[in-house]
Amino acid sequence: MNGTRVAILSVGDELILGQIEDSNAPFLARELQRIGCMPGERRTIADDRAALAQALRELIAGNDAVIVTGGLGPTLDDITREALLDVIDSGKELQQDPAGIAHLHSWFAARGREMALSNLRQALRPPSARLLANPNGTAPGLAATFAACHVFCLPGPPAEMRPMFTAAVAPMLFDAQSVVLTAALHTIGLGESNIASQLNELMDRAREPLVGTTASDGVITIRVRATGTATAARTALEDSIRIIRERVGDIVFGRDEETLASSVGALMLARSLTLATAESCTGGLIGALVTDVAGSSAWYRGGFIPYENARKEVDLAVNANTIIAHGAVSHETAIELARGALARTGADYALSTTGIAGPSGGSESKPVGTVFIALARREGDVLSRRFLFPGNRAAVRSRAARMALACARVALLDDASRVLLWSEAEAIRVERC
Amino acid sequence: MNGTRVAILSVGDELILGQIEDSNAPFLARELQRIGCMPGERRTIADDRAALAQALRELIAGNDAVIVTGGLGPTLDDITREALLDVIDSGKELQQDPAGIAHLHSWFAARGREMALSNLRQALRPPSARLLANPNGTAPGLAATFAACHVFCLPGPPAEMRPMFTAAVAPMLFDAQSVVLTAALHTIGLGESNIASQLNELMDRAREPLVGTTASDGVITIRVRATGTATAARTALEDSIRIIRERVGDIVFGRDEETLASSVGALMLARSLTLATAESCTGGLIGALVTDVAGSSAWYRGGFIPYENARKEVDLAVNANTIIAHGAVSHETAIELARGALARTGADYALSTTGIAGPSGGSESKPVGTVFIALARREGDVLSRRFLFPGNRAAVRSRAARMALACARVALLDDASRVLLWSEAEAIRVERC
Fold this sequence. Notes:
The first copy, chain A, is built from 15 helices and 18 strands. By secondary structure, chain A is an alpha/beta fold.
């Protein structure tokens, strides 16, 4: 990998203690790639002058640039200015910057507020650093070059940090010769190791572009990262994407921001089809995922949450004898739920779920995690699949809702890809609608 | 602050590149304080064996313990096992652990799935490390002691990492002399600055225990943090909680893990009442929040997602003329939806939502964010409230679902507290059921 390597250093007790999440570091990581830099190591340090100075020294030694966020406020626990001094101007003192003092006076004057004396700390800088203007707050940033490494100190509040990065840091670091482009392909229906064996040598750590996988709620995401000139990286990225799609095929449901629900919606819209839902164990999660997609009213008619058995019988015409004979959690009930939703709404496709999300309610034959997902198609078959999902109640429900959408998706594709999903299911039953 | 100092090291290209947020590090930081440890420096490293080994060496030298998350998967880009080997068993080779192999075989056998050979990598460990059992996934953790520092390597997925921390790491690091106890009181119905003025001097930054507030999706959470020996911290924490409850009263709906839905459920259960839902704009979110509560089948009968107008008319008996005269997004439709859900299910309470979540569909009289929430009570009134929620589609929907549950909650309490919620609504209409 080439390109300017930039380390990110976040400062603050509130980060170290886990009281707030650090959104600055991921933002900087993404922006750095866009301008041709490579995000390097990331560290988080408490409001501790010596620890921050030590981390700065180590990161300066190993990177082309270091971006520090936080610790530039007016109070005594803001120690970034002092730590930078210790590293780049050891033995000297901070000095007041006239432009910084002018900025502070005009900031408070414009707001008709009195300036606390402590704010004057914010106009201090190490002798060999310069200030970066902050149009969105009182704290100027700091920039310096030391041991051939660019060091930037930016304020912690994202509303101040982000514009300062764009205005003052990005132009200095921009490198058209080595942009880093990334893409994500989201899949469902095969396990991570199975996908890895299909990708095989593409996942070699020395390959360029780099290919890796991550897993979340049953969705396996294949990530590709290409580095080079803007044009070369784009070509290499798209080439890899094409090869990956050829290997893993229809299990890819979306790229980058696309979700399972939006991919189902696109397929439904393209064929002028509509969907309905009848959710027992997922209790509205599928509906929530579907209606999270803007414009879903064009393809989603609505649904039912038949949580108690009476709802299954009254709202979705499940036969009471079916529940007595096979249980509410069964192929038979799932199939009747899907049929009922189809008949009741006049939709083209209907999805149903019934299962045991836990923590109680499991049995030897139907342990916690057992979920039946049925899909009925008008003038077609109704197909029920039995799954056993791992994890706690929330995980079982989340996986079941996503797998249900995946079932709808493969039904909208050809038969060959459907086989993939079948391999995830424990048992399958098909009936005529 | 004293106690065992523990560094946190997160591993993964996807973190370095800012593709996913690291929720593990803040979780560990908070949990470490609960067991009397002090979170130390935090680092994030790419999937790079040499860089990880170097970071491990540096953190081992400066801390009493190091917790690594990620990099334990079955693929070649998972390099935590190898990096740990380089540090604690330099020059030796990873060895297969028989218990690890047995775990992998039984994991796949229990799921009726074939194990890819690559999974066997997950049973490897450095000779002087031991495996930590993972009941929630294939990757065992690793534990070792090197240079008087405890090193723990945990899997990256939070659903696997968290239980492993609790079961295998926390008991080893627990320090009764310097625990940090925290509590959170969740409120809905008053704004953050209003709550802050009631808490007043309790929020002084020099006070012990420390009190602060955070806001999310319309829920304001009051956080308390007490430090000291286990007994002293517990007493101080509960004293503060009692004082805060006295000041802010019934707007507190839950503590710590309690949710709006679980608090509604507890009130419903105590009075043997049941709930039904009819969700247009929230599309199943309320049902999903309700059924996320284990045991909710005792008080939740089920619901409807009447997304298209035909569903409102057919499933919930909304008069077609009502929709023509007042629109689907109106007090009138919300009231008929709630009445319909009540009549159809025989529940004691029924909640309905209808609104404009955006991004399109808004008008001058009903801008994006307009949501009507109605609550019907059997043999009581039906009360519809009009809200204007800020934010994008996801934020409007999430706030609407939470506010609907809050409406149910205040109806279950006395009249005095209901006034609080009314002040949040733009307009209110009450009719007999």
